[in-house]
Amino acid sequence: MPERVFNFSAGPAVMPLPVLEEAQRDLVALPGVGSSVMELSHRGKPYMAIHADAKARLVSLLNIPDTHDVLFLQGGSRLQFSMIPINLLKGTDKTADYIVTGSWGKKALEEAVKEGKTNVAWDGKSTNFNCLPKQGDLKLSSDAAYVHITSNETIQGVQFAAEPEVGNVPLVSDQSSDFMSRPVDVSKYGIIYACAQKNAGPAGVTVVIIRKDLMEQASSDLPGYLVYRNHAEADSMWNTPPTFGIYLLGLVCKWLQDDMGGLEKVQKQNEAKAQLLYDVIDQSNGFYIGHAVPEDRSKMNVTFKLGDDELDKRFLAEANAEGLTQLGGHRSVGGVRASIYNAMPVEGVEKLRDFMLKFKK
Ligand code: PMP
């Protein structure tokens, strides 16, 4: 087998090696079934068991209360940017509040504007999205349909340490890039959504955790796929689900439970990994310039620049030659971005830290 590099891609991102190995072993024929998971009817017993197992593991890992449903959808998080206002805002005279902390929050807002009234409760544009709002900075509407946040901004590398206070208004959180990276109190949320391709599996499946009462109001005249209720009533089989992706998501959950010991341990490891890199940045006398202010730094996407574009390029090329790959910042911001999701081993981060120290010298 070709050697694996340390892959710092922001997504699709590194997968846990034991998951890839199990999928490889069982790819052609699942034990006791004799067919690939890709060849199974989604209505048949073997796939239904895989589907139920993936869902049960998610419920257990995130301690999801039975006030909430778990849906496996397609269309990525970007379809959720539209489905959320279509289901919760469209046809009401309420306002949806958006806390815009980076590129993804901005894109979520752009879609919501098409569906109903919106209010920008905070916008980090003036400081180039390098920090998050304090509670007192938020201009929340009195009777909002929901408040939308992006818990981790993948491009800028800022992450909420705790959710903002929004009273009785449903809190909607895009957790695409920090899903299952730490425990969350699901009962505080109306909706949590995440495309899988960072922390949960391959691209093609999107997880939506939604409070059941929020599914009631959407009009049945909407295109069927866009109505959460249809997916919930059909246990995410309203249409053919992305079966292979859900299978892999289930394996990732099993790895988080059995190998990693659950989300509290995962969180500790993620914090320690991030600290290794932030320490180098902070002790570099300005050689490495971190983007986010220290208190709002992401544990998932460590973003920084060197003195100029040429030095950034040299850093990326030399890192790549040492097997530290896909470290380029998002095309809209440049610089360096080390995405260190759950599946990035500590050794990968240590190797990057050592490279950063050597490169500075
Ligand atoms: N939100 C966040 C925070 C993301 O990082 C991404 C993908 N990078 C998206 C939304 C969009 O996800 P998708 O491409 O699956 O629609």
Describe this structure in words.
Pyridoxal 5'-phosphate binds at residues 104, 154, 174, 197, 239-240. The structure is a single chain. By secondary structure, this protein is of the alpha/beta class. The protein has two domains: 21-259, Aspartate Aminotransferase, domain 2; 262-360, Aspartate Aminotransferase, domain 1 (Alpha-Beta Complex). It is built from nine helices and 14 strands. It has helices spanning 17-25, 45-62, 76-88, 103-112, 228-233, 243-259, 263-282, 309-321, 346-360; strands at residues 6-7, 68-73, 95-100, 117-123, 144-150, 152-153, 158-159, 171-174, 191-195, 206-211, 289-290, 301-305, 324-325, 336-339. The mean pLDDT is 97. It binds 4'-deoxy-4'-aminopyridoxal-5'-phosphate. The site of 4'-deoxy-4'-aminopyridoxal-5'-phosphate has 11 residues, from helix 3.
**Series of H and E elements:** EHHEHEHEEEEEEEHHHEEHEEH
Mean pLDDT: 97
Uncertain runs: none
The percent of residues in helical segments reads: 25-40%
CATH superfamily of the largest domain: Type I PLP-dependent aspartate aminotransferase-like (Major domain)
Helix tally equals: 9
The domain tally reads 2
The CATH topology of the largest domain: Aspartate Aminotransferase, domain 2
Largest sheet: 7 strands, mixed
* CATH level 1 class label of the largest domain: Alpha Beta
Bound molecules: 4'-deoxy-4'-aminopyridoxal-5'-phosphate
Query: What is the overall shape?
Result: globular
**Lateral arrangement of strands in the main beta sheet:** 2-10-9-8-5-3-4
Q: Determine the strand fraction and express it as a percent band.
A: 15-25%
State the total count of DSSP E strands: 14
Task: Report how far the terminal alpha carbons are from each other.
Answer: 35 Å
